[in-house]
Amino acid sequence: MSEAPILKDTTRSSGREALQKNIQAAMALSEAIRSTLGPKGLDKLLIDDDGRTLVTNDGVTVLETAKVEHPVAKMMINASSTQDRIAKDGTTSTVILAGEMLQNAWQLILQGIHPSTIARGYRKSEQHVLECMHELLMKSNDEIRKTVVKTSLAGKGYNSMQEIIANVSLDAVKMVAEEDNSVDISKIKLISQTGGKVEDSRVFRGLMLPKKRISSDMEKEVVNGKILLVDGGLENKNVSTDLKLNVTSVGVLESFRQEERKLLFEQVDKMVKHGITVLACRESIDDDVKNYLTKVGIQAFRRVARSDLNMLARVCNARLVHSVQSSSKNDIGEYVVSKNVTMDGKDFWIVEGEGKAATIVAKGSTVDIIGEVERCFDDSLGVSVQLIEDGLVVCGGGASYVALARRLRRYAETIPGREQLAVEAYADAIEVIVRVLAENAGIDPISTLLDVVAEQTNTNSDQIGINLELGKPQNMADLGVLEPQGIIKQALIGATEVAISILRIDDVLWAKQEMTMPDLPEEDM
Ligand code: ADP
Ligand code: MG
Q1: Are 131 and 147 in a shared domain?
Q2: I need a labelling partner for 320 at 20 to 30 A (CA). Which of 33, 70, 80, 381 fits?
Q3: DSSP conformational letter for 285
Q4: Which among 432, 481, 492 is the best mutation to test ligand 1's pocket, defined by most ligand atoms within 8 Å of the CB?
């Protein structure tokens, strides 16, 4: 075949060869994180270019930190990141599920089944399992929600750490939940501090910033007043390069400065006129202005990050202004409380307003621990949001996947032709979660899976999963291993999506350059 000139500088692989390489890459990636799944999963030690190290059990962190070049592997990582964005948890599961779906697809391709037939079968399977999900759902209460958040932290940290992170996350989410239970997670701020134990982590209503008012002569605590947020400062600008002053005598410069000061003081007067009692600036506030602000009774803060100003704006229903002069009545916000507190020798500014907000102060003894605590909060907050918004949960420990696979096998019998084989392959693939959970706990994966399936069928229960301590099937609701339905649903959707997209690629054009392929043991294919 003569290549089109445009393809001259590319290496091309097509058809089955392309598919095989792509599936190998996807499998290699899922192999790489398989061992982190579940409470018995092991940690990975990640070392970056600069030699910095990170110990984590979090699938998406491992994948995002790894410098993966293969485009198909990148597709898998994107699927995991999407899972992280949408469901906050289940990132490892998504990649493992996709890898297994592709491996099973490859077996069918070897038997001569066309990738598009498999893709169609997989799509039908996905639709069917999503339709069946409602049969597995359970409602949650406070107690159950706490259990669910703890399950999401399985394998991370230790019991009392999981306990406090679950409690704090749920409380924070409840603080910002609206009446219709909708939650905007960006209303929760996380501040982390080294020193102290993880168990000392707490949540506060309102927005809390590691800031101190600019003068301790200013009021420490004020209530029910007006606040102005300036996306700039109250300072004499240095004479800049585009402005040239010909100073003819010392007096001129002095009067120039005085004029500037006068303008700044006028801005303070304007604030007083509008009844403003709290001021936050992104830039600095000059010392004489500070004294004047103190005199007129305005509590002021400087060098507040813009992201924090934006949060303050939402809490106090205010709008950021570029300068005091340009502010109008509508820009001014209202606070309920604005107070300065000291905790463990550190200063904080707490603001409460009509708009909802919560701040979590996460603690840990070392930078490494704090890092892992932050990642745990990230997961558990996401899970808490789902629980407050939706509240429907399903059994974890592989139970739900097995229950769905059982339904799929019955459904497969109704599908004529080769697609039936794809539906069966999909059912086999989603059972992988039980196998890997067992594998990581040092239990025989195959017999564990068979035991769980048998127990579900014999007791006609969808709640039987694997008790990893005993290596035996058990009711996961009794064991308190529960997950928000959204995580499993999203993991299935994400995995199916990426598996199908990879199956649809039959031509790969590489620009001629060094590219590394992940290695995979031959016998796996
Ligand atoms: P992911 O990134 O996919 O969330 P995790 O490492 O967090 O991966 O593992 C989640 C899996 O571990 C879920 O399938 C969950 O049901 C399971 N799991 C968590 N705790 C237990 C437990 N005590 N017993 C059995 N399975 C558990
Ligand atoms: Mg998890």
Answers
A1: no
A2: 381
A3: B
A4: 481
